[in-house]
Amino acid sequence: MLLRQKSFKEKIIFPTVIVLVALVVVINVFLSARFSELRDSLINERLIAITNGLKHYLESSEENTKAAAISMAINPNAVKAIRERDKDAIISIFTPTHDLYRINYYLICDKEGVVLARTQGSEIYSYSLLQQQSVRDALDNKVSTFFESGVSIKASAQTGAPIYDTDGSLIGAVLAGVRFDTESAVEELKDILQSEVTVYLGNTKIASTIFENVDSTAGITIDPDVAKIVIENKREYYTDMDILGNKYKAFYLPLLNSKKEVFATFFLGIPVEELTAASNRSIRNGIILGLSGLAASVVLLSFIISSISNPIIKLSHDMDHFANGNLNVEISVTSDDEVGHLSKSLKKVVNILHRLLLEINVMIHEQDKGNTDYRLNTEDFQGGFKLLANNILDLAHLGMKDQLTGIPNRRSFDNRLDLEWGRAIREKKPLSILMLDVDKFKNYNDSYGHQQGDVALQTLANVLKQSIKRSIDFAARWGGEEFVIMLPTTDAKGAVCVAEKVRKEIENTPIPSADPRAARVTVSIGVSTQIPTRESSIDNLMAIADSALYKAKETGRNKVVWGGDGSGEEQEDSVKSWL
């Protein structure tokens, strides 16, 4: 009796199944033995991740307070209010910037260190801030950032910056801070880190996401052995903790004040039971995915070994070169079998990706020059590649266009300004800037609603696009209700004339609205012009335009003011003669 000869497929499938079954058994035995180790590794990795997250949060808090303090210390409106000791004005100027700089409070004091105003907390003023090192440094003409404890704020990151009057004399200091001592602060940090958080002042709890239902007067303190390591020895500390009947993987981070003393401590805790369940799910999913991938790999390997190993290896080498960045790789497998067809298909993919990358590079180069209207030609691609090209195009335009008005955003303007500045230096041609601000826009929003305010901004943006006729002129949204127009090769007279034309166009353009009272807005415009040199600066050009805009707002609004050469001399006669 003749035995049936096994087919080629059977020869591959049978040993593959045997191998897979053996691997399933081995993997399950191995993972069962290593389960505890894998779980601990997962927990430790997560603890390290949230530890790094806390450190990054503290560093960001320091940077945010520094940016807030320095920016507000040079804010002209803030300086004026502090000089006049107008508490209400100070609060109204400083408070809206909390979210902008991601801080919690400002403390503003005079040059003697006595509090003039604060944007959060107690209404009690006229007490001294000289016990704060950052304030003492600020009154000593230095900007400094520390973790500190104050009169009413027990733990925070804060920066002090000196405030100078227009004549250069010191008139006070501003202290910007991010608090760590409130329940809202630790709840926010818990959401960021996905970890329980407790803050201690000294070794006594002041805010916690674990002990929120525990009487705060009970005086929950750090374990003495832990306190010796963290507070006395000023060291970070990882440990296992049992808190209110639950086991935690814990981390303690000491906070050092300006004297390099530990005055507060952060505690982060991860519940072990929760991570054990997550670890079990991850391991189970990993087994399923691993076995699936292994099965596919074994089948593919069997076919490669039996018939086409050499062409596949060559093709693999070619694709490795491509994956390593060699976009000009030449796929050399040219057989007429399945491998040859695969080679041709991969060659098409390589060519398409190569062409797509070239198009993207051209688009990025054009947008870096401020050409926000440049679009890569997505019609050259099909199917998923066309979708990918369109998605890349959409992402690029999201980064360069203002989403409300559809005109270029500030990033686009900065790119274009750098380009035109360099061109103006080379050609020794003038470059003009128009800074526009909608007059009394807050009142407009308050009266007719923010949705109507958006309609007004969109209408204004359309007027700007229609008002500039040359391809080299550039209009962008600067931020909020502020816009900017750049006029290359345009002298002061020409810039002022364009500004007046734009002002009139906006004044005479109706704003779509059901309320006839909301049918008009006006703008104030500041103009600056320079013939750039390698010694001049873009910042000075923008500062002159901004100063001229500020003067236009101060002297009646709905007008154009030319900033001149930045010397501060009166320029109204020049504007009148040009118009």
Task: Give a verbal description of the structure.
With 579 residues, the protein is of the alpha+beta class. It folds into three domains: 307 residues, 2-Layer Sandwich (Beta-Lactamase); 63 residues; 169 residues, Reverse transcriptase/Diguanylate cyclase domain (Alpha-Beta Plaits, 2-Layer Sandwich). Helix content is 52%, strand content 18%. The protein is built from 16 helices and 15 strands. The strands form three sheets. It has a five-stranded antiparallel sheet, sandwiched between helices. The termini are far apart. The model has no long low-confidence stretch (mean pLDDT 83).
Could you give a short description of this structure?
With 579 residues, the protein is an alpha+beta fold. The chain contains 16 helices and 15 strands.
